[in-house]
């Protein structure tokens, strides 16, 4: 790296993206690896841990995996030490920022978006797992995924940081391990049973785990060697008076519903006015409440606006607070604004107003309001189902444009992943609640036996088509005239053809072939390619995986929605076309 060229300065848009990640308290979780952020406060300092870790690192010049890289501080450091680094991070915003910080610094390490248990390549010389695996203790399905991942991890050594036990109070149904019990679990499952404590950072302990030279069996009790004694530094020749502690900065409280209401009207007026190049004023506002299965109710507002000019014009918009992944949504919506076909259209997107310094609840999206009817798919007429199918086929016409204009376009369906272990864990917890799972156990075994072939078929079909992934119900509006209006594109991604139709797998199975055939016919009429067998399989399989994943991600103690989701997925395994 040419030090005269790098690091390049951080742009204001990058700084804003970092602020959005940091959120309301104004502190990054860890240091941001770029000099333009040197004075930005962080909750944890990398330097102390790096000082503890560096004497224990081996295999310099080899490969290293940084799990949960956040914004990449340790990946930058490992590359400076000579490692060929792969970083993995599940937070999409963090991945986007980390890649920019890497490029500005002239680094070359790879950053993969996703969870560690989704890694295809698991062979590395060194693995860094700093305060990350403890997240698997929070939910049963995550613990099952960690349990499946560790035996696949093929590395010479791991630097592991334990959790702060006070941050994980015991909860029924969740693995309850002390830091020492957890490191022994990690060591046993990974085969890295030569364990040494190397130091502490606050309430967390760092360990060095290695594959033992004598190749002893994993079932042998694992001893943890204590950290080497630290030599005391010589006393200073002259003591200095202690500096007066600076008062801590007061954290910004989360924005309340009342506070957001005060900011909303002016924020919407400014955003729309800036977008159309003419000041506007609000005439009235009406709240719309849409039921959400997993989140209670979601609040929307319809705003009737008027331009301030010689000949005023009126326009209606709707606003939605709590917008996630704003940069991604902006890019996807820009693509959809250009789609003009008779099968569907998206409402015009005015943009996102940040009304609370990056807090998610204060991020408000604003769209054109179009009046119309919505229909739950299970209650929709055949005519409405046919229009939904044609709209889903039409969405695919934006695929190539999205590939070009959305640099970080999600390239797969996130919940189509190995779930058998998580399903098993969730069933066990449901049983502790008195739920009779006897009829589901054979189906869970059947699912586990054939899951690999199902996922292989989805991969073979390919993630070739832009998909909505939350299509139907209240996200498709049927106006009095014109094509259906498709809203809420935050979950858009590439997926197998017809994955957009996953909710239609909930209607009478006898008409599924008819819907798949109409989808393929419409795709062909629009110049695309698809076949009925793959469309039918994708529509059904993706919904089975969604239902199982939804059930496994929720706390089984919260109510019967988890049982319902798991039961639907396991009783519809015939949709996966397995023996």
Summary, kept brief:
The chain is α/β, with parallel strands linked by helices and about 575 residues long.
Task: Give a structural overview.
The structure is a single chain. With 579 residues, this protein is an alpha/beta fold. It folds into three domains: 12-225, Rossmann fold, CATH 3.40.50.150; 257-369, Phosphorylase Kinase, domain 1, CATH 3.30.200; 374-576, Aminoglycoside 3'-phosphotransferase, Chain: A, domain 2 (Alpha-Beta Complex). It has 15 helices and 20 strands. The protein has helices at residues 12-22, 46-53, 73-80, 92-104, 140-149, 179-190, 257-276, 326-336, 382-395, 399-405, 420-432, 441-461, 512-525, 532-553, 560-571, and strands at residues 28-30, 42-44, 63-67, 84-89, 110-113, 123-130, 154-161, 194-201, 204-210, 224-225, 280-292, 296-307, 314-321, 349-354, 363-368, 373-375, 465-467, 473-478, 485-486, 493-495. The strands form five sheets. An eight-stranded mixed β-sheet has the order 5-4-3-6-7-9-8-10, with helices on both faces. Strand 14 and strand 15 form a beta hairpin. Helix 5 (140-149) packs antiparallel against helix 11, helix 9 (382-395) packs across helix 13 (512-525) and helix 14 packs antiparallel against helix 15 (560-571).
């Amino acid at each position: 790296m040419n030090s005269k060229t790098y690091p390049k300065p951080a742009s204001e848009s990058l700084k804003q993206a970092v602020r959005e990640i940091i959120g309301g308290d104004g502190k990054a979780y860890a240091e941001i690896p770029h000099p333009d952020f040197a004075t930005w406060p962080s909750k944890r300092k990398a330097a102390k841990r790096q000082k503890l870790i560096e004497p224990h690192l081996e295999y310099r010049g080899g490969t290293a995996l940084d799990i949960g890289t956040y914004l990449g501080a340790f990946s930058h450091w490992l590359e400076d030490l000579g490692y060929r680094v792969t970083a993995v991070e599940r937070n999409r915003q963090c991945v986007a920022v980390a890649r920019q910080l890497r490029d500005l610094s002239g680094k070359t390490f790879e950053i993969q978006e996703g969870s560690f248990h989704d890694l295809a390549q698991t062979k590395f010389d060194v693995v860094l797992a700093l305060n990350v695996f403890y997240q698997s203790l929070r939910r049963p399905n995550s613990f099952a995924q960690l349990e499946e991942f560790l035996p696949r991890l093929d590395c010479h050594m791991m630097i592991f940081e334990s959790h702060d036990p006070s941050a994980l109070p015991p909860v029924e149904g969740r693995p309850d391990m002390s830091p020492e019990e957890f490191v022994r679990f990690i060591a046993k499952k990974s085969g890295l049973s030569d364990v040494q404590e190397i130091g502490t950072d606050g309430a967390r302990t760092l360990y060095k785990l290695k594959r033992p030279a004598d190749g002893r069996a994993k079932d042998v009790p694992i001893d943890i060697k204590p950290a080497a004694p630290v030599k005391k530094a010589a006393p200073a020749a002259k003591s200095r008076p202690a500096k007066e502690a600076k008062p801590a900065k007061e954290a910004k409280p989360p924005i309340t519903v009342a506070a957001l209401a005060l900011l909303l009207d002016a924020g919407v007026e400014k955003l729309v006015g800036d977008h159309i190049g003419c000041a506007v004023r609000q005439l009235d506002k009406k709240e719309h409440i849409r039921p959400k299965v997993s989140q209670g109710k979601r609040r929307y507002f319809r705003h009737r606006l008027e331009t301030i000019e010689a000949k005023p014009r009126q326009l209606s918009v709707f606003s939605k607070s709590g917008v996630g992944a704003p940069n991604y949504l902006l890019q996807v919506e820009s693509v959809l604004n250009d789609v003009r076909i008779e099968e569907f259209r998206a409402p015009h997107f005015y943009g996102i107003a940040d009304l609370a310094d990056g807090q998610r609840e204060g991020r408000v999206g604003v769209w054109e309001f179009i009046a119309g009817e919505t229909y739950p798919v299970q209650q929709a007429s055949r005519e409405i189902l046919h229009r939904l199918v044609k709209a889903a086929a039409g969405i695919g016409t934006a695929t190539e444009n999205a590939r070009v204009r959305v640099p970080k376009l999600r390239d797969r369906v996130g919940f189509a992943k190995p779930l058998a272990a998580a399903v098993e864990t969730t069933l066990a917890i449901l049983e502790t609640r008195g739920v009779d799972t006897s009829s589901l156990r054979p189906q869970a075994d059947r699912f586990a036996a054939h899951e690999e072939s199902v996922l292989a078929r989805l991969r073979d079909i390919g993630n070739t088509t832009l998909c909505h992934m939350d299509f139907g119900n209240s996200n498709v509006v049927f106006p009095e005239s014109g094509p259906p209006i498709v809203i809420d594109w935050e979950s858009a991604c590439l997926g197998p053809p017809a994955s957009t139709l996953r909710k239609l797998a909930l209607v009478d199975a006898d008409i599924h072939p008819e819907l798949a055939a109409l989808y393929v016919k419409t795709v062909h009429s629009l110049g695309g390619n698809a076949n009925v067998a793959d469309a039918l399989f994708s529509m059904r399989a993706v919904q089975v995986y969604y239902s199982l994943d939804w059930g496994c991600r929720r706390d089984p103690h919260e109510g019967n929605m988890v049982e319902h989701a798991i039961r639907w997925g396991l009783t519809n395994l015939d949709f996966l076309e397995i023996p």
